[in-house]
Amino acid sequence: MKLTFFLIAIFLILLRLSYPRLELWKNGHEQGTMITRGDNYIEGVWWSGKYRLSDDDRSIAEISPGGYLKFRENDTILKAESDLQGRITYTLNNGREELPLNDSGRRFIAAQLSKMIGLGFFGEERAERIYRQGGVPALLAELSRLRMNGARDAYLNRLFTADSLTTPQRIGLLRLLDNANNSMDQQHFLNRFPRAQLKDSAVAQEWLNVVGHIDPSYIKKDLLKNYIDSSLPADRFDTVLAIVSRFGSEPDQQEIYKNLMDLPQLRTRDSAFAGPWLSAVGRLGPSYMKKDLLLEYLDTTAKPRPPIPVDQFDTVLAVTGRFETAEDQKEILDRLISLLPGADAQWISLIRATGALQPDYIKSELLPKIASKMPRNDSLRAVYRIAAKSIQSDIDYGKVMRAVE
């Protein structure tokens, strides 16, 4: 039993050291508590009833009758209480002594209220007042001064309901979001950018920059899935690929690459999209992931089915050649045979890739299929014979050679 209590005590000490700031919130209707504790430090706010800040942010303009608002930082205390007639009285302590409500006391009140503003208090009314007085520029300026993520929400919410943001202002807003260190908050507000605004190239590029700086891959993945559509231009397609290549999760990468396959530009094998996509797929680790993506790219049921350009054909073969298993390679080569390469150079590359496979039984299955579909000219027959000679079994060699005669 003593050992159990000892281990619990050690755990609590380690927890205390690992999390020196613990935020405790208790929120109810017009009543709440927020306490932040750390080693030799406490900061807290307690409130009851409705309260309103003065327009100059330097005093409490109103507290509902019987309500109160208290702020404490270590031994420094500000408490404002309202009697039943709504008259406000202050209790002020700077950590050394009680302060009277003179000029020094009023400066003390203003300083403590400024700290509360930094914690997010008075946010909705301040955001509305700042917007009413100075519009979007004033809200952006205020946001740049607020460092605590939770303190920004009311001001961001007010900005997103404004319909007068210019392109530079939207970019400024995105840069403020980029400086946040709460990925969930970033995701929430990035999702609030209407798709119409992301048609603006400059705004979209900045939006993608912020997405790329978010740490968790699953958040970036979800944001990109909502962003990708058929209007995606080539330059932003490349940016999306660059972001995905830095994911910490290969399944998340595969999901986005698969999602990109729905773009009409990839379906028609537009080189500006298909070339970079194939290169990105080739950098995935597990062969089965690359195989599944390439099989979808080489879909034989798609209508219309455009021919594979030579450069993309060669990239597919290069990616396939780095697979970990011959069985996975076989599936891709079999699909390429079914698609009927359009040029002798492609047939030659396909035959050589097949001849490099091991074991022999896979070559013995694929080479006759190639022979039945390839053009019967001397140059292709010569390459085919060289590939066939790599087969060790006389029986399989004979079968493969009879297919080309």
Number of strands: 8
Major sheet: arrangement of strands: 1-2-3-6-7-8
Q: Poorly predicted ranges (pLDDT <50, ≥5 residues)? A: 1-22
Euclidean distance between termini CA atoms: 86 Å
Taking all Cα atoms into account, the compactness measure Rg is: 33 Å
Mean pLDDT: 89
Share in β-strands: 5-15%
Structure description:
The chain has 405 residues and is of the alpha+beta class. It has a domain of 100 residues. It has 19 helices and 8 strands. The strands form 2 sheets. It has a 6-stranded antiparallel beta sheet with strand order 1-2-3-6-7-8, covered by helices on one side. Strands 4-5 form a two-stranded antiparallel sheet. Strand 1 and strand 2 form a beta hairpin. Helix 9 packs parallel to helix 12 and helix 15 runs parallel beside helix 17. The longest helix is centred in the N-terminal third of the chain and has 23 residues. The N terminus is likely disordered.
How would you summarize the topology of this molecule?
Elements (H helix, E strand, L loop, with lengths): L1 H17 L3 E7 L2 E8 L2 E8 L2 E3 L6 E4 L4 E6 L2 E7 L5 E7 L8 H17 L3 H23 L3 H12 L6 H12 L4 H8 L10 H13 L3 H11 L6 H12 L4 H11 L3 H4 L3 H12 L4 H11 L12 H12 L4 H13 L5 H12 L4 H14 L4 H11 L5 H11 L1
Helix pairs in contact: 3-4, 3-5, 5-7, 7-9, 8-10, 9-12, 10-13, 12-14, 13-15, 14-15, 14-16, 15-17, 16-17, 16-18, 17-19, 18-19
